[in-house]
Amino acid sequence: xxxxxxxxxxxxxxxxxxxxxxxxxxxxxxxxxxxxxxxxxxxxxxxxx
Length: 49
Fold this sequence. Notes:
The relative contact order is 0.38. By secondary structure, the chain is mostly beta strands. The chain has no helices and 4 strands.
């Protein structure tokens, strides 16, 4: 069985920079501060479908 993946989208510019494995026990969307290559700084990234 393949692992389902979701992407993390930057809240400022909207680009999807990171891919993560989806866990079944996670009920709320993940929010992490990551570096955005487009913005050039650390911004909040939210889990998107």
